[in-house]
What we know:
Layout: H1 3-14, E1 22-26, H2 31-47, E2 50-57, H3 64-77, E3 82-86, H4 95-112, E4 117-119, H5 124-136, H6 141-144, E5 150-152, E6 160-162, H7 170-179, H8 196-209, H9 215-241, E7 245-247, E8 250-254, H10 255-259, H11 263-278, H12 286-297, E9 303-306, E10 310-315, E11 318-323
Parallel strand pairs: 1-2, 1-4, 2-3, 4-6
Antiparallel strand pairs: 5-6, 7-8, 8-11, 9-10, 10-11
Amino acid sequence: MKIEARVYGFIREHGLVGRGDRLLIAVSGGPDSAALFHLLRTLRPRLQCSLFMAHFDHGLRPGSAADLEFCAALARKHRVPFVSERARLKAGAGEDAARRARYDFLARAAGSLSCHAVAVGHQLDDQAETLLLHLLRGSGLQGLAAMRPSRPLLPGSPVRLVRPLLAESRADLLAYLAAGRHQWRLDESNLEAKYRRNRLRLEVMPLLESFNPRLKEALGRLAETAAADHDFLAGAAAGFLAGREREKDYFSLDAAAFNKLHPALQREALRRLVSELLGSQHRADYAGIEAARRFCLAASGREKTVAGRVRVSRRDGRLLFKAAGER
Length: 327
């Protein structure tokens, strides 16, 4: 099956682009985003959507101005509306700061163009690397799900971030570009092993692939099944938490009902409660969640602060949860 048919099928399977959608394509100039642009441009008549291009210049490399011009010229050639912005990052700004600046720009650009979604060029190799990085950090099921085909661009945003290439390998994308004689830009920083992800890509992945040449496909399948399993677990936890009570600044749960839950469901319910109390950006680690779970199950102990800033206590057969800084 040709790559165009595979990508179209992936888009349809996951509902990434709807008829009449306005889609903003984030293009850096590298091979992944260049392939994404050409594939979506080719598929536009079938998708029946409008396309726009956005480029964010981090200003961290000497060649970034040429990347901007390359993307602007590509948009002009194919008559796709184009927006760009140059970052104002402080010297020594890390990858997290650069990423936040990029996504803030994409959110503003999508809003100004009334776009329904922003498409990015993450592909199967990226998915495999992300899963391994999460695994090395000791992540649970949610981390093993790695990158989803679709998610909100920013927390609470109606604009979606979509990844149409998530099932395609970097090798297949390079072959597609070569076959179509499409140009792209090389980011030399991707070859520097000082970055954690680059070191994984350049040193660790080749070693692991000596054990399993189809490692990336295997990790991609693991991410897909972990995502489905986590969604099921999250739905069950949400159903249980629908019975919680909220009084002023705390939540309360029936202690006996909580104790009857499977341990996996107990942990997921506690994660969701912590996020509700501390904000969606806060993710408690395994140790914090497990400390909360064991306190909830114990027959003794009146109060305990867990997961960093959540106070858990008991009263009249119920478990009470509140942010520790609140009185």
